[in-house]
Predict the structure.
Amino acid sequence: MPRERRKWVDILPVAIALTLMVLPTAWTERLRLSAMALFIPFHSLSDDLQKTMDIVTDVEGSVPERHLRELKRDNDYLRDQLLKLLAENIELRTQLKGLGQFRDAVPDRQITTLFASILVSTETSGWRKSLVISRGSNDGVRPGMTVVWGNHLVGRISAVSDYTSRVSLMTDAGFKTGGTPIPTYLDRTRSYPERDQGILEGHADRHCTLNWVTRETALSEGWFVMTSGDELTDIPRGLLLGRVGAVAPGKGPYYEIRVDPLVRFENLEYVMVMMRGS
């Protein structure tokens, strides 16, 4: 800015102030009032702020320490309840998703499911792979019923008491069911063509084997293995058993097939017991 213009900018407010002082009050009163009106919002805001500060000061000084502790305790309780509700909401959403996956795999409406929490996760020994659930005979659970997690087969009920049941996992040494290898490019939640079927057997470790599949069957690692339907054990067709982890020539005309379950049974928090309606 040029020096002379800056000089005028500095002098102008002083000149206006002197002019207002010299002129008669009657001439300048309206102008003074108009100028003061510009400061009304700021004055109102200052008053509101002061009132708020006074209220806060009064509250802090008037509320006993005992009431403040009670308010804090109530606040902590409500926060804990909110966290519990959020956790329950997540669990219900997870169960609803699992039920939807089961319905995609097993559309038979005569089959219903009963949710059960896991009380003891994967009891293990040299020959047993099992878990204990929070449903028993009082809930209609019977030995031999199929247990699933979503569209994954978990095992079957092997023993029942009034309020709890034992589930023999599909990796248990005594577990057997029909299985069919399915290419990964097929939609496993829908119908798939009839193929050579085998018998899935547990071996008391993390893996199973699919036996009696002939080497004439096209097969490779990574394929899915689905239940082929077992009328004797009432395991329906279409549940997911796992993936083919390894394939090698076996004895005679058969493959040696290792099946890796896709579910880590020790990490499950709940399962579903299949209940067939009358």
Notes: The chain has a mean pLDDT of 79.
